[in-house]
Automatic annotation (TrEMBL):
Provenance organism: Penicillium digitatum
GO cellular component, one term: cytoplasm
Protein name: NAD-dependent epimerase/dehydratase
Superkingdom of source: Eukaryota
GO terms assigned for molecular function: aldehyde dehydrogenase (NAD+) activity
């Protein structure tokens, strides 16, 4: 039976995952790390998680690292050009354009940690399977473990949502 460690269990992704797993698998005892904590730039934590997964797994029983990253990675062109809030013509495609998303410049938000995860998946491919997951917008009613109300992609979305509903909004960059 595979075991799972979840970082960021008080956030949207980690909290809902933990609540669902706890409700459905109370006996669960980590072959899989769902890395959802707000440590996208924490090199030390990332290296420790990778080292633990590599040391504790084999080709027959590999470890898995699912690393969530923020959509801030897609704002680098605005930052470089100093054109915040300007609509971009660039359409990101995580299927046909995956190489563009995996080959972002080194100075992009969270890129240092993303690169650690990607490199680990290449260097230790026999014992470690990795994935980067970048949810564009996270919006829903939280399960009891989570404390936040809403997480929005952009200020414009926040304005649109606040205008159309009675929602307390917070911005995440």
């Amino acid at each position: 039976m595979a075991t799972l460690v979840i970082t960021g269990a008080t956030g949207y992704i980690g909290g809902d995952t933990l609540a669902t797993l706890a409700a459905n698998h109370p006996d669960a005892a980590a072959d899989i790390v769902l890395y959802t904590a707000d440590v996208s730039n924490h090199v030390g934590a990332t290296k420790a998680i990778i080292a633990g997964l590599v040391a504790g797994h084999t080709t027959e029983k590999p470890g898995y690292l699912l690393h969530t990253r923020g959509t801030g990675i897609l704002t680098w062109e605005d930052s470089d050009k100093n054109v915040y809030g300007t609509e971009s013509e660039h359409v990101h495609n995580d299927w046909d354009g995956v190489d563009d998303l995996l080959g972002l410049p080194a100075h992009v938000f969270h890129r240092n940690v993303d690169q650690l995860v990607l490199d680990a998946g290449t260097q230790h491919a026999e014992v470690l399977k990795t994935a980067l997951v970048c949810p564009p917008t996270i919006y829903h009613t939280n399960l009891p473990i989570s404390t936040r109300r809403i997480k929005l992609l952009s200020p414009q979305q926040a304005k649109d949502n606040v205008r159309s509903t009675n929602i307390r909004a917070s911005y995440t960059y």
